Amino acid sequence: MRQALRWRFQPVLETRRAWPGFAETARTAGAAVKDALQEGDPYWVGELHGSVPKEMPLPPDLEALCVDGPWLHDVVVRAGQPETARDKLLPVIESERLHLRALRHADAPSVHRALSDPDTMRYWSRGPLDTLEETRGYVAWNVEADESWCWAITEKTDPTVALGWFIIRIRGPGLGEIGYILVPSARGRGLAREAAAAIVAHPLGGGAFRRLNADVDPDNEPSLAVVEGLGFAREAHLRGEWETHIGIRDSIIFGRLRD
Fold first, then answer.
1. pLDDT digits (tens, 9 = 90+) for 80-100
2. Of 84, 152, 175, 252, which residue is the least packed, with the fewest Cβ within 10 Å?
């Protein structure tokens, strides 16, 4: 089976720093390196040919370079062409019930059920979207923006249907903010908690950030339960922080450190 491991940096690091770690990772995985690292735009790419484990630990020196430096992502891409370019940058993560994959443009009709629902959007910074075209634009930004890592929440029984998404927005080096949404029919089953736990714990998801934070409306009890259940600590209560479609709202800031 042909598999490729891609490391993405911003800005691109020089070859002499990136390549030794890539080669060492290949040896650790028992895979042969076919091609030397080549300069790409905007990432360095090297390929492994052989059996590559789903989670490939990085050597300590490269892990330190990636996590503490201007690192964006690292992923194993399985045989075949991914549906979107974003699939090349986000790892597929699985939990007991869920298949968490990169959000795609084609997911817009599915997630429109959430983004157009007044109850689902009550505590968002904007009201429900009126048209599918608006949702397509919203989804496109989450798919394409470099500062957005967005996984579609799907069930293993049908990974083609997005029930919502989990997003990490990059706020700075090593800093991310989480967010999530589910369609009405998927709520009340613990899926948001399950998706969040899997992604936050993954070394190529939340584990890539030294700090994650969440910004939650104090009346949004389900979201408060999710972030507190993940071990996020309440750090601040900001009064009158947001002006939204339901009025002036306070905000509870949660934080979680990697170490």
1. 333 444 454 677 899 999 999
2. 175
